[in-house]
Amino acid sequence: MLKLRVRSVTYEAEGILSFDLVDPQGADLPAFEAGAHIDIQTPGGLSRRYSLCNTPGQVDHYRVAVLHAPNSRGGSRAMHERVRPGDLLQVSGPHNFFPLDLQAEHTVLLAGGIGITPLIAMIEQLERLGKSYTLHYCTQTPQRTAFMQRLAPRVAAGHVQIHHDHGDPRQGLDIEGLLDKYRPGTQLYFCGPPGFMKAVEAATSHWPKDAVHCEYFGAEPLAKPVAHSDAQPLEIQLSKSGRSIMVDPVQTILQALREAEVACESSCESGLCGACKVSYSAGQIEHNDYVLDAQERQSQVLVCCARVLQGPVVLEL
User: Fold this and answer.
1) Which of 252, 284, 282, 258 is closest to 270 using CA atoms?
2) Which of 34, 153, 282, 315 could join 121 in a cystine, given CB atoms 3.0 to 4.6 angstroms apart?
3) How far apart (Å, rounded) are the C-alpha atoms in residues 240 and 295?
4) Is 194 left (phi over 0), alpha (psi -120 to 50) or beta?
């Protein structure tokens, strides 16, 4: 973990602040590539993942931008309301689960709202290497569009297009039309809110899987199943410790582990980051993550958002 000082807090757009973090002694920070993120221990104890949006190669500071989400579990609210210049924050990383393919002939980047954060670093890395790219940035209004000063020269050059829908997605970017034809040598990167992500995923269903890359920064709340009066607790067996614990059908596996005081790493608690991934060898699981593919789900589970369907589930813990 790093302990970094907040050098500055900057208003970027309506509801969006950026935070510059530096080493208190002025030392260089670990280098990062475009697409990387850090995990910040926010005031109140929540750990949240934020993409680095400063220029890759800068080691004197990290910059993250945070959208104030009123319906969040408190991480963004704490960053907006409680973090001030001079504060010290615990930070881990950087980690990169969203790396650029620098061999692509052309790169298409699609950002929805605060999803611009990893992509603005990507365009700067692509420019530095002289690579061809196009960025489409979708926001609700000009007032909610972050980093306009940084993007303005790219807009003027035709590399960046900004689309405002004013609350009606039908007035924004025609995602389906844009992605209708796959051109060999193209790589696509996209990041944004759940509705935006689903639209891009649907529009690229015919693209080669290895040409499409995404990162989720937020997830829809996990729907709570209806509790039945006759529902019986289900069993989780921990193969390494030999323990057996019970989980209510409406609980996530992580909730049951915490109640039993079983240590298990976690971060986003939305099935987005993979920090809580655990191997399992038996049982039926309701997977609710955004990370694992069908094959991986045969032997791995993100316990923060998964539930037990049929036990015993045997975890390698």
Assistant:
1) 252
2) 34
3) 24
4) alpha
